[in-house]
Amino acid sequence: MISVRIESIYAVGLAKILMDSGEDLQIISASDELQNVLGLEPRVDTLDVHIGDISDRFGLQLKGSPEHVDLVLSVLRKELPESLVFRHDLEQDAVYFAIVDNYLPRKRIGFLDLGGGKTGVMFSPRLKIGSKMIVQVKELPLEENKFPICSDQINLAGEYVILEKGEDGEFVRVSKKIVGEMRDKMHELGHRIRPPGFGLILRTSAPEASEEELRAEVEYLKGIWDRALDAKRAGIPKKITSGESIVTLYLHYGSKQRLDAIRSKVQNVMRKYHSFRSYSVATGFAVDYMLNFLDEIDSEEASRVMEDMILGKDYRHDHPLRAEFHKIDGRVFDPILGIIKSTAGRFELYKHLDEYHATNDDSQFVVYEGDYIRTYFSEGSWTIHYQYYSGEDNHLIGDRIQVVTPIELAFRGKIRTVDFGINVYRDNSTGAIDVITESDDDLLSEGVITSELDIKLGEVIEKVLGLLRDAERKDPILLRN
């Protein structure tokens, strides 16, 4: 039995997927929402996989042992095939013996040789080139060429206790969930079993174990530290113990619609429920409050009210609109696409090209100061259509169609999407059409996208090419599911 804790605004849909999968999965520490909607018990058990929202609620982070995370991930992606997966080749909380290869005193950054061709970074004023250290991976940036962030504050976690080695010195702490006489008992026991030179934390599950079991786990964890000291004496950088796999799952507009449909099987929800919940904390509270009255009010009208509120507040006419483009290599760009001219059914933007923007425009067209771009997209569209015009006589220079994940509205007047680096161009003067891709990476074999999404992207490109070849076409190319 693999135990999974879900702490997410998408919890009901995710739990329903896991419960209906037929796999040996159990939801533990169920929230009030999961208890009320799905009838789950607030069962507490040893945690195998944790699922939580990433900071901008654009998706999820799964954390646990690699084999457990991979199983849960495979179950979720069967129902959410258009989601994207990003993972790091190192593991969170893995312990290494490392040697400082380089140190930048002004920035207080040390570059660590972790062995096996792996590099980590550490922020500290105490480092020197050649220093030998025992470190633990604390953060795994998604962006390509960003190194894992390490620390010499070591936390060795077991099922019942956590053994700590670092600046805090010697101490005994007991989980806040353990109360009353049991808390006093655990505190006394902790002082008896804590090895000299370490801090000890007794976890919520500690009362379930006997003193002998707790002592055995403490000795096992201390043995990891002893192996690290042996490696330090040998002087060869290496991994001492594995950590937990960290996987980020991006849920774009289409995936959230799918979660809406799954949740609707157990609870009446409004259209775009999860998009509203992820837009901001305030809209999340608002739609959750509305759920209490959906039997009495028209759910479609409730959705329209929320849409009008968001558009009226954050997407006002003649205001700039910024895009949040997540690149496949982990980078994020946030250019201003233009000034909002219309939001009626689709967004229409206008952008005048000054000398800087004309010189730095990333299209394949030759443009000059004074030229301008009209940009079109709609919420949920797989494409953004840019039309380039001459500032001298207003003739159309060409079309650029950017292929992205279905666009979603993001807090404070932005749009958010994953940019695959695929652009289709049509030169209006010659009629020539080209497909330009930024990368040769095989996203399917790397596990970033599913075969279903790979097929979908191919279909989108083919439809774009067909529409661009149509000489009678007048409307912008905005492709939706």
List keywords for this structure.
11 helices, single chain, seven-stranded mixed β-barrel, 481 residues
CATH class descriptor of the largest domain: Mainly Beta
- How many beta-strand runs? 26
Going across the biggest sheet, name each strand in turn.
17-19-20-21-22-23-25
Please indicate the count of domains: 3
Low-confidence stretches: none
- What characterizes the major β-sheet? 7 strands, mixed, barrel
- Termini separation comes to 37 Å
CATH homology superfamily of the largest domain: FomD-like
Approximate strand percentage: 25-35%
Structural class comes to alpha+beta
Mean pLDDT: 93
Rg estimate, integer Å? 27 Å
By CATH, the architecture of the largest domain is named Beta Barrel
Instruction: Sum up the overall morphology in one term.
Output: globular
What level of helicity do the residues show? 25-40%
CATH topology of the largest domain: FomD barrel-like fold
Helical segment count: 11
